[in-house]
């Protein structure tokens, strides 16, 4: 068994040694390190093989010695026992049978390997021959492909050079076209700017013309307005008439301007279409140049794949590519000529359009200059008429002032002559007011013969509101100011409003101003409108703050004592308020207690007789000789 195992090991090691020798002899190693490793492994396997071979030889010799000694021992034993001779061939045959049984598979395998090795060698020889033939065919095919690709690359390089030159020419033409387009765009922007400035001038001239026409229509009729007519409505009507007149005169100009704007819009649309056409032409040219290149590359790739070995009939010639390139160049030249013709036509159209736009702009500027000259003449005439109307208005105002002065003088004379003062009313007035108040008796007179008797209710109301009819000096807090300002609180002649006047414009100072005008000999302008007014139907009540009530009590106590020195106070120090429904409260101040009492009593009487004020005012106007309201 040990010998059989050693023989098996020897066979394996012999196979490995053969493999290593084949690997080292085939030259498949790639480096010196691998060669050294193979040699070391081969030497090691050979040393082991020699060692195992010596072991097998030693074991076989020992086995033969044992086999040679066993028959002798058996013969001796048989001779001693009396048994006949037996041949020594039996054990040796058994050993040989065992050895054959062990080595038969190995030998069979070695035979199969030898046959396979011979077959493999034949196959390798045939494969080497086929490989050499294939390499020769491939070399021929590569040479043919190289020749074809060289011709194709030369033709492609030539076409690329031509295309580059044509692209450079197209790029130069594109630059020229872009410069032309930019010039047209600048001209368009300049034209749009001129049109905008012209529109602005037209609007400004229109405003001036409307203002001048409004003044021309308003000034002559302002002095002839009837009492009760609202000046604002009259001015609005005059402004509306002026706008209609100006609009009627501007209709033709607006039509021309609208036509000009339409032409500008058309030119803008044409410019946009031109830019789109240029972009499309550039894209089409780029596609024409890129499409043949894209077609040529797949054809070259297909030829490299579809080449049949040992057949050179499929090689393309360079003349075919040249003819195709010439055809494409003719197509490109034709398209370029068409583009040049289109460009020339568009350039001619743009030049014609620019000439038309320039002519229309010149016509618009000329019409604008004419309109401006006409408006200047109209404005100058309106200004002359305005100055003439202003002089006439000043003359009429001076005459009105003279008439008002004469009227006030006549009223004062009539009041001094016709009015008498009853004693009981004068004593009652002296008891009610510590200081002498207004002379109410001077404002009354007894009815003469043929006159209707004076209404006692009207007379009582007149006595109470006379301080407000004449005007009382107060201080008013008018927003947005934060300080009190001196004003005159006056009741209107129709008993419907409380008005705040400047001290120089109140009805109480009219007579003094009239006398001063008469003495000086020249007219002094005065204000005809109150600073503020309050309708009595919106007045709710009169509110006296606690500080004012306390000040009134202290003033009454000081007047009774008459020993304490009065403290220095501001002029207007007695505050009171007029509460208005749905609006801000009027904050006023009086200078003394008597004025405050007169104002509060008058306002209270007006609030009490609020429903009868219209009838009382009407009866007072029907009796102009009885009362001077």
Contiguous helical run count: 11
Low-confidence spans: pLDDT under 50, at least 5 residues?
81-88, 224-228, 298-318, 419-451, 518-526, 625-629
Shape: elongated
Helix share, percent: over 70%
Biggest sheet: strands, sense, closure? 7 strands, antiparallel
Largest sheet: spatial strand order:
4-3-2-1-7-6-5
Task: Find the structural class using helix and strand composition.
Answer: alpha+beta
Strand content: 5-15%
Mean model confidence by pLDDT: 74
When the domains are counted, the total is: 3
| Strands, count | 7
Radius of gyration: 68 Å
Q: End-to-end span in angstroms?
A: 165 Å
- Tell me the series of helices and strands, N- to C-terminal: HHHHHHHEEEHEEHEEHH
Protein architecture, described:
The chain is α+β, with helices and mostly antiparallel strands and 629 residues long. The protein has three domains: 2-143, no CATH class; 148-221 and 232-305 and 322-403; 460-622, Pleckstrin-homology domain (PH domain)/Phosphotyrosine-binding domain (PTB) (PH-domain like). It has helices spanning 2-26, 32-81, 89-222, 231-305, 318-418, 423-432, 456-470, 510-520, 546-561, 593-608, 613-622, and strands spanning 472-476, 485-491, 497-501, 532-535, 539-543, 574-580, 586-590. It has a seven-stranded antiparallel beta sheet. Strand 6 and strand 7 form a beta hairpin. The N and C termini lie far apart (165 Å).
